[in-house]
Amino acid sequence: MSLSPFLKSFARRLCERGIRPMLAGVLLLPAAAQAASFRYWDDPTASVITLTRAQFVEQVRQHHGEARLVFVNRVVNNAARQQFEAVDTWKGFDRLVKDGFGDCEDFAIAKYQILIDAGTPSDRLDLLAAKDTMTPTYHAVLRYREDDGSHLILDNLTPMMLPEARRTDLEPLVAFDRQQARYFHDGAFHPVDPTRIELGGQRLSERMPHLMDY
Fold first, then answer.
1. For a Cys staple, 18 with which of 11, 104, 147, 185, CB 3.0–4.6 Å?
2. Which residues, if any, are the signal sequence (predicted)?
3. pLDDT given for residue 26 in this prediction
């Protein structure tokens, strides 16, 4: 299964330089205080739902397996809009829904935070920075590692969660979580010193410890 022509066109219009390696001079702004509530468009009920973060996390806990991933992907995607930002400020869930917009890495970080808050093991999750071959530019998504070692991709540009092997539009660059980073080379991921990787003008080693704090 591959992305439809519609989704390819949609991604080409919307995915604008979410993660830009090797750009210097970016100011990292402090995260906003936790939002009291947020709204998202609920596709199944065709209505707008208002929740607090705590209520959202509790609802996520009630889902299990792939259903949990689908739910978080859908809610976060529908709680804000993709928008290019001249200053590459990384946002977590609270800042993303408060602003109502963000780059692709903001959506990935928001999903990462909510899933961990709801009890998903952190070693199942990481962020992937990749080259989007359709644009071409850079894109960020959240990955979930399944029992067999393969990954599902949670992408802010589509509600579909495809296996990474089927996302031929993405050329992996680096995957990382709070503890480690891996660089893609010769068809496989290899451990890399995060001080050697720069995303959005800041060393990855400085960003990784704060993935739950943005």
1. 104
2. 1-35
3. 29
